[in-house]
């Protein structure tokens, strides 16, 4: 494969990623549903995963707490998201090149499948930027596992480079627990038996932040609310049914977090086009070329894709929901499985390979007619392949036209009022912060029509108490924040300041422009000391706060060590890959 083709694949992926993320390129912050970026974050106990709630935002919050004093936190999140979108597309192109020896046209089809699909659109609208990092790591994890399988035992440099690449991929995926599970599943199913212990050790190291936080905080030791299973079950889209929606890489539980095109017949048209393109290449992916390692990897990916589609489809059936409800009610940590549609991401590598192979299959069929000149077939085949690739890209992109430019402008940068910074400057001790109105989601005048997670926990230098309760499909899924629930109930019932102080609350922040329950909180606020107010925010100090027993020094040290291990993998891994690659290139030149 020529250097020109490599540059073309990387450039095409970059252009597509920028087309999707365009509205985020200007100044401002990502604030949409579950996505909250802020100018600066702080290394609170919650950022380490040691708060009351389950450590779902670990280690991403800690990473932002470390980097945002140096680089603006909003810029970091936007950069990670754009790089993730690029890496997903380019990784799929490289995967097609290495496992199929695909032409450049077929590689671009694979890149399009990986980036331009309903899964990416829906997770962007849901605000799952860190999950998309795990999604983007999947093709690179597969590549690293394949290279490990093909590296001969005496090829020390190549083997070491593959191990380093696998460590980087797992660490990147480990930005969120679900991403770590996705990449870990791919790596462990593709590794040779003798490589399993080392692969498992790398996965544990990459997952150390949330594994340690779960063990140390105790939040993961309690079963989850079974109500979440039905609330987060995969959803059928127009004309497709649940299985068809999932097979088309859609079907997220939140009907509001979908592009407009997926609420019309275009959803069926786009899914049929995608599945037809994928179906063309299934046989070639399963049986093609004589490399047994490549064939094994491709077949495993096909099996994982089938499971990734069938598992959430079964989870949306009545008996499937009953089984999952029993699981989350009796098995600690099983709550990770409640949003089953997230795991459809595992189908992406196989879909990308099948689409690339399908491009080649159709091109060969169309160019199979006898040609008049001896050198004409090759020229004709290249032209036909380019034409087929162009048609495939159009069939993938046009039905989902509104993924462009931030999913129709919904994914955009917003600007916080200056009052947030002034409030953060006035919180001068480590006492916890309670917030009003009740609940975790907000609607601000500057954030758009969609509800957003309260930015206070990431905006303020002290731990902000959150109940973890999620309003989903007209029902409420219980969270793990027991003390936060007590504090919220106290405020809404107009409890005394002394009771609030006994619960360890040193500050109360009122977000004045968002709807939500306030109850009788005015009675409590009248007993507190006002320290700041403007049109958007009001901050009160609670007198005589009694410090609650939080994480011990040992727990914080262990959690910090787990994050440091993960960070080391993320930083040292790429340096090792580059160093080993340069070393191997030098050795090749010397042999010549």
Give, in spatial order, the strands making up the sheet with the most strands. Answer: 4-9-11-10
Number of helices: 24
Radius of gyration: 25 Å
The percent range for strand residues is: 5-15%
Structural class: alpha+beta
Average of the residue pLDDT scores: 92
Strand tally is 11
List segments where confidence is low: pLDDT < 50 over at least 5 consecutive residues: 372-378
Give the helix proportion (percent range): 55-70%
Q: Tell me the number of structural domains.
A: 2
Shape: globular
Major sheet attributes = 4 strands, mixed
Distance between the termini: 20 Å
Topology readout:
Elements: H1 3-21, E1 29-32, E2 35-36, H2 60-67, H3 73-100, H4 104-115, H5 118-126, H6 129-150, H7 156-173, H8 177-190, H9 196-206, H10 208-217, H11 227-231, H12 241-247, H13 266-287, H14 292-315, H15 318-330, H16 348-366, H17 376-397, H18 404-409, E3 413-414, H19 419-426, E4 432-436, E5 441-442, E6 452-453, H20 456-459, E7 470-472, E8 475-477, H21 482-492, H22 497-502, E9 505-511, H23 521-525, E10 529-533, E11 537-541, H24 553-591
Parallel strand pairs: 4-9
Antiparallel strand pairs: 1-2, 1-3, 5-6, 7-8, 9-11, 10-11
Helix pairs in contact: 1-3, 1-4, 3-4, 3-6, 3-16, 4-16, 4-17, 6-7, 6-8, 7-8, 7-9, 7-24, 8-9, 10-24, 12-14, 13-14, 13-16, 13-17, 14-16, 16-17
Describe the model.
With 592 residues, the chain is α+β, with helices and mostly antiparallel strands. It folds into two domains: 3-32 and 72-409, no CATH class; 417-541, no CATH class. Helices cover 58% and strands 7% of the residues. It has helices at 3-21, 60-67, 73-100, 104-115, 118-126, 129-150, 156-173, 177-190, 196-206, 208-217, 227-231, 241-247, 266-287, 292-315, 318-330, 348-366, 376-397, 404-409, 419-426, 456-459, 482-492, 497-502, 521-525, 553-591; strands spanning 29-32, 35-36, 413-414, 432-436, 441-442, 452-453, 470-472, 475-477, 505-511, 529-533, 537-541. It starts with a helix and ends with a helix.
